[in-house]
Design brief:
There is one protein chain. 58% of the residues lie in helices and 10% in strands. The chain has 214 residues and is α/β, with parallel strands linked by helices. The protein has two domains: 5-82, Methyltransferase, Methionine Synthase (B12-binding Domains), Chain A, domain 1 (Orthogonal Bundle), CATH 1.10.1240; 92-211, Cobalamin-binding domain (Rossmann fold, 3-Layer(aba) Sandwich). Helix 1 packs antiparallel against helix 2, helix 2 (16-28) runs parallel beside helix 4 (59-82) and helix 4 packs parallel to helix 5 (105-116). The chain is globular. The structure holds cobalamin (B12).
């Protein structure tokens, strides 16, 4: 059994107390926070998706598991942020899950990674309307938006949102990075956005954009 199995299982079981304890133990043993996330916690959520499809787990159980994961993420978050004190970029990235979609975990992680790269993040939460994206982009003079969709049904909402943003004149070019379970590079291309597969990719892409003159 590898060291990530215990936290993987504890998230599947929705045991919040044990998940937090295991996370603390692993960190105390010198385990890298990003490894705990990528090798233990995220695979657990993926596994829950499979169990949901097989009807071996149901939405209320998944909610409890999501809560356990979020409590452990809260412990890891400051460790990821500390590393970034000297980050060069200081612009604000707008982060949100599109209208009609209430999934937050992946989007939250994307926000944390962006903060770890020294960005300010305006997290609009989930179920965000195109109008709210526009309002917040203007309020922050933001050049970068990271948009999440986890449902095939909310892909349409993402497409509409990106189209709405493209019709606005912000006075500078806007970069939209899209991601989430059902989003593919070809879909991103089709709607005129950048694709990122992971939170690490998003961070790299945002740094690339912010260091490119416009
Ligand atoms: C947890 C969960 C929930 C929780 C969400 C809690 C929360 N606060 O987020 C709850 C229980 C509320 C929920 C509800 C529903 N869910 Co749900 N859920 C999941 C589950 C099990 C895990 C998602 C997750 O958090 N993964 C962990 C994170 C870390 O991964 P992630 O989100 O994929 O994010 C990573 C990448 O995608 C990427 N990423 C994510 N966002 C972004 C954004 C950008 C910009 C970038 C670059 C990258 C990026 O980076 C992240 C880190 O690497 C998935 C199964 C799965 N395999 O995804 C189903 C899943 C997404 N849900 C599903 C469904 C159907 C629903 C419901 C409609 C169920 C229902 N009948 O009510 C509702 C949705 C209601 C709504 N209107 O939104 C389906 C979607 C099927 C589809 N293709 O449309 C899935 C796939 C489950 C399944 N059946 O297989 N769900």
């Amino acid at each position: 059994m590898n060291q990530f199995n215990a936290i993987f299982q504890s998230i599947i079981d929705g045991d919040e107390e044990q998940t937090v304890q295991l996370c603390q133990d692993m960190l105390a043993k010198g385990c890298r926070p990003i490894d705990i996330l990528e090798k233990g916690m995220i695979p657990a959520m993926d596994r829950l998706g499979v169990l949901l499809n097989r009807e071996e787990r149901f939405i209320p159980q998944v909610l409890i598991s999501a809560r356990a994961m979020q409590s452990a993420v809260a412990i890891i978050r400051p460790l990821l942020l500390n590393k970034a004190e000297s980050g060069t970029a200081r612009e604000t990235v707008i982060v949100g899950t599109v209208q009609g979609d209430i999934h937050t975990i992946g989007k939250n992680l994307v926000g944390i990674m962006l903060q770890s790269a020294g960005f300010d993040v305006a997290d609009l939460g989930s179920n965000v309307s195109p109008e709210e994206f526009i309002r917040q982009i203007r309020a922050h003079n933001a050049r970068i938006v990271a948009m999440s969709a986890m449902l095939t049904t909310s892909m349409n909402s993402m497409k509409n949102t990106v189209q709405r943003l493209k019709r606005e004149d912000f006075g500078y070019p806007l970069h939209v990075i899209v991601g989430g379970g059902p989003i593919s590079p070809s879909f991103a291309r089709e709607i005129g956005a950048d694709f990122s597969a992971t939170m690490m990719d998003t961070m790299r892409r945002a740094v690339e954009i912010s260091t490119t003159k416009h």
